[in-house]
Amino acid sequence: MKTYTVEIVESSRELTNKERIMFKQGAGAQSLDALTQDGPIEIYPELYALLAIHNEKARDDQDYQQIIVKDKEGNLYITGSRSFIDNFIEIAQEMEGDPEEWGVKVFRSPSKNYNGKEFITCSII
């Protein structure tokens, strides 16, 4: 029995077999947590996939979600931030089919629930 599984539960369009493997493996995806340590970044997305992950070796939650966003240059970005995932998917779904180019500003925001903690989120640009 596998102790680690990844399933694509949602994507912005039908994925090719190569894209499915790329997203499930997450190889080369840059952590948004690490990238936003020095300030906000901008991403102009081409494609995203929402992943459901089961990891029996995880200390806390063995079942969790992550999102991988592919930008127009082919870079991959990954995070498990619930705030980012919710905001990003809402923006992407709202902009679907809109001819206007759009992107997201990814930034850290102080937590209202945990003193000294930050979370990753995004807004449209």
Characterise the protein shown here.
By secondary structure, the chain is α+β, with helices and mostly antiparallel strands. Helices cover 22% and strands 41% of the residues. It is built from three helices and eight strands; from the N terminus they run βαβαββββαββ. The strands form two sheets. The protein has a five-stranded mixed β-sheet with strand order 1-4-5-6-2, with helices on both faces. The longest helix is centred in the C-terminal third of the chain and has 14 residues, at 82-95. It is globular.
N-to-C order of helices and strands? EHEHEEEEHEE
Name the average pLDDT. Answer: 94
**Low-confidence parts lasting 5 or more residues at pLDDT below 50?**
none
What is the count of helical runs? 3
Radius of gyration: 15 Å
Distance between the termini: 44 Å
Overall geometry: globular
Spatial ordering of strands, largest sheet: 1-4-5-6-2
Short account of what is shown:
The protein has three helices and eight strands; from the N terminus they run βαβαββββαββ. With 125 residues, it is α+β, with helices and mostly antiparallel strands.
Which descriptors would you attach to this protein?
three-stranded antiparallel beta sheet, 125 residues, alpha+beta
Topology diagram in text:
Elements: E1 4-11, H1 17-25, E2 30-31, H2 32-35, E3 41-43, E4 45-55, E5 63-71, E6 76-79, H3 82-95, E7 104-110, E8 118-124
Parallel strand pairs: 2-6
Antiparallel strand pairs: 1-4, 3-7, 4-5, 5-6, 7-8
